[in-house]
Amino acid sequence: MPSAGIFSYAVLVACLAPLPGAIASHSLQTRNYVRGIVKSRFLRRGISHTRCNAEAKPRKDAKVAVIGAGISGSVCAAELARRGYQVDVYEREAEVGGRAGGHSGEVELEFKRGSVPVRFDTGAQYISPKSPEFQSMIDTWAGNGILKEWKGRVATVTLPEGKTDARATIEEKSTSGERWIGSGGMGTLCAHLLKDKSIKSLTNQMVDRAEWSDTDTTWKLFAQQQQGEDSEDHLGSYDAVVVSAKQALTKGPFQGVGLFDSSELKEIEKKTWSFTACLAFEQPVPDLGFQGAIVCGSRSLGWISHQTSKTPSPIQSSAIVLAEEDNVMKDYLFYAIGTRMQEDFGTLVSSIVGDRSIQEIPMYSVHFKEWTDNLMGVNLPPGPPGVRCRVDDQKRIVACGDYLTGSKIEDAALSGKSAADAVAAMFDAN
Q1: CA nearest neighbour of 169 among 155, 182, 180
Q2: Quick one: which of 17, 136, 138, 278 has the most CB atoms within 10 Å?
Q3: How far apart (Å, rounded) are the C-alpha atoms in residues 94 and 205?
């Protein structure tokens, strides 16, 4: 199996040009109004945030369901497990991670026998902590071997406007802090967080219906057996539910729980379109002089990241974010978008190195991923300072997610931590 001279590229096309650490995805997420462990009560927009009147249960007897296994849901589940709760995590995708996910596979080589393994970060490319609270999380994860620091050179590449023979300009981006990545790719972070024996992680599992019982103060979750059939499976009964998958709130089983009013739900439901394409090259591409770059002046490219500089692999790879306006994106079929990404990447490399040698290198389209979410967060009314999730203590349901306070991995993680604090407050004795 050949291992040398293979280069690969992951390409993400987005309708807005997000920063590499702020890429959203299918991961379903949401928000709450809690700071730390909240034991007070207040009213907002007619939603009563009060403590549950039901008798408090010992922590280890309480069972919690978490909907969505992105960063927010995974952090929440890990924190609840650390405190002694039994947690079931429901994820509709085949792998956990959400927008911090990745793709693993193999490239079958046309011009050389055999195949080579590939690994791409298809969403967020790295994590840059800003707050002391999130830095503490990073330190813990790094100490456990989940994260490692990435020291790749990051630049801004500007393509010349309307000049096919002009060279691109490259300006190194100033380093404002540490950059961290998953030890085995960004997608491994959530997988590590969900390894606790108190957590049951269920992938490829939709929750189609949820039912709250005032009599025994529990949530019952159900899944439809097959599309179009009336029969359904009872997934389990839970003392509390955390929804980190926002689609479960806007159109899913928790649409009518009342955590958000109608105008907020419309804002949360807004979508943009983005695509990730993973490309592999059978020969080394020219040295671009950076491991990651924000691209300006391209009709579609937005971000490039050299994957092999982050995760050792027989293939050296990069991830590219391509940005287009939503109305332009609708004019392209899925396969046509992939072709356009490949063409634009070749143009970019040619503009940097001054020749078109990349056009002669055999290239493979390894993987495509479509994202439908608002990449830059949503415009919800601000909550109290430091509040990162939304809670209904009476029905024991919490909504969390990055879009409640921002659009970065840090926002998602801190919202998940606040959601775990909120659940703990429901069962802590006064």
Answers
A1: 155
A2: 278
A3: 8
